[in-house]
Request: fold
Amino acid sequence: MMSPIGIFDSGYGGLTILRTIRQIMPQYDYLYLGDNARTPYGTRSFEVVYEFTLQAVKRLFDEGCPLVILGCNTASAKALRTIQQNDLPLIDPSRRVLGVIRPTAECIGSISHTRHVGIFATPGTIRSHTYDLEIAKLHPDIKVTGVSCPMWVPLVENNEAHMPGADYFVKQKVDEMFTLDPQIDAIILGCTHYPLLLDKIEKYVPANVKVIPQGDYVAQSLQDYLFRHPDMHERITQGGTLRLLTTEHPRQFNENASIFLHHTVEAERIVL
Ligand code: DGL
Reply:
């Protein structure tokens, strides 16, 4: 039986994380789960995001994953800690669930010179203040400004990210960010869907500002983790395969997922 690395997201966003992880670690088997039928999570309550995320994690465990990455900032902000502390010890203490916020917060210290950093994320991630707290622990001299972008995930999920209409919603939020803090010189894209809007975001931010998709940092951090935990590395099978599961109809998933992954895919539908 295969023991793949599981990657979970509310929809397609985690595919941006899957792609960068597979670029540097193509040898492992991977199992992706997108809860497309119930996306977006960003506007849902703590309780519901936790409940949905736990269902997904259990499913990925049942499929044989010893390690699950929550490739979703909203789930990482709202469900990760409770799953790690309360659920994992009861389900199987030898398995691991990791998130995407900590590795992203780590990278920012060496990127910002003004020590003023912006975060674009879903309303759930912004309201949780998880980025502010993580960055304050690691880099207490950095001032963080969070702006929530409730329209951006629907734009990406509906394949509208490259359409002219998306410009309005992107410019609106970029203007909001720089009105709140004009000294920002680095912006974290704290939602795994947002790299699909990168071109448009870069079009509206001042030229000196770095816009940071988190995929490369999450991938690097996972590689370091597996190097530091050879027992986990040995448990993950290395056939180089990718299997994709979705809670929506696979036809729609296959079309949109190929835009994120830059190759065609055949997903399977599951019920959580
Ligand atoms: N892609 C997810 C994130 O990183 C959330 C999208 C959503 O479901 O709202 O936050």
Summary: Residues 6 and 68 are 4 Å apart (CA to CA). Residues 9-11, 13, 39-42, 72-74, 122, 125, 153, 191-193 surround D-glutamic acid (CB under 6 Å). The mean pLDDT is 96.
